[in-house]
């Protein structure tokens, strides 16, 4: 029973504890970030939306360069450095008084997030043995979701105070959580890497055409997140008779399933073939979800609620299976000394899809009267058809290793005589 709720002892449990800790602070902040900038700072909705768009674009542009930086200087150092930048950014939030300063702090936050994500992934891949690596990442994701849920509840309490001090709590709590997390990460076992100078530009990873094709498939799969967060709620309130409070229950259903099933979903993510199968299941699950949501526009009453719930379950399956498969691909396919930049390439692809997805998918599903769901289903069906040939291409393509060699967590060393 313990093995179902706790990762293997040692470093995996430290990683899980860190994820839960930092997620509480992020949950507090994300619950009221828009409210903070609107009421505390006084920005308009257009300014807030534009600022977050600029921040998102900056994160895309920096994903590969900062992944390359994590490869060169080590995942743990990059993780800590990114966290420190994040602490500074959130401490500056209360000083924001104009649009330009808003963009500056969001830019710092984007740098922090990209560097932290790259560092965490590089460190985890290097420090955790391959046989439990994906399973550990699944535990990290599950506890991250639990931390977000707790933080969201605390954030709702802070917003309910309806005061400037209450809004200030949102950002300062996250700054404190990130600072504690940075200290936690700094005390994790060190991983020594002996990497020679790498003068290859970070975007050179795009010349690995099989991996680039693989990131394209996962870019399509990442659109399922857009479907869940944006398209399905709009479809539910404009094209079905489901009462609006049902949306909260659907989000809660997704969270519960993600926490309970993320680890079991990694069972077959132990080889290229197994991960390709998971990816195909993920794509086909969204194909089925598109049909289900289309049917939901023609049902009534409790049947509509049941149909929407089934669609959310199918989209959650896509989320769980695709994330498990992607963890395997981004840690096992790249050369060990270039995992950061490969991860950056993967995140750039999915980030572009998430930028285009809300507009394109909302138009297809909502503004066509429903027939656009068939187009979305066809897109995911193409991903299901492509994944095995693409993975086979990845598997038969050699990748040159640089001079890096990685060892496990370092043994404690005695203090020097100096």
From TrEMBL:
Signal peptide: none annotated. The keyword Transmembrane applies. Gene3D superfamilies: MFS general substrate transporter like domains (1.20.1250.20). Keywords: Cell membrane, Membrane, Transmembrane, Transmembrane helix, Transport. Pfam families: MFS_1. It is a multi-pass membrane protein. The chain crosses the membrane at residues 20-41, 48-66, 78-106, 142-161, 167-190, 211-235, 247-266, 278-296, 302-321, 371-394. It is found in: Cell membrane. Its main location: membrane. InterPro entries: MFS (IPR011701), MFS_trans_sf (IPR036259), MFS_Transporters (IPR050171). It comes from the Bacteria. PANTHER family: MULTIDRUG RESISTANCE PROTEIN MDTH (PTHR23517:SF2), RESISTANCE PROTEIN MDTM, PUTATIVE-RELATED-RELATED (PTHR23517). This is MFS transporter.
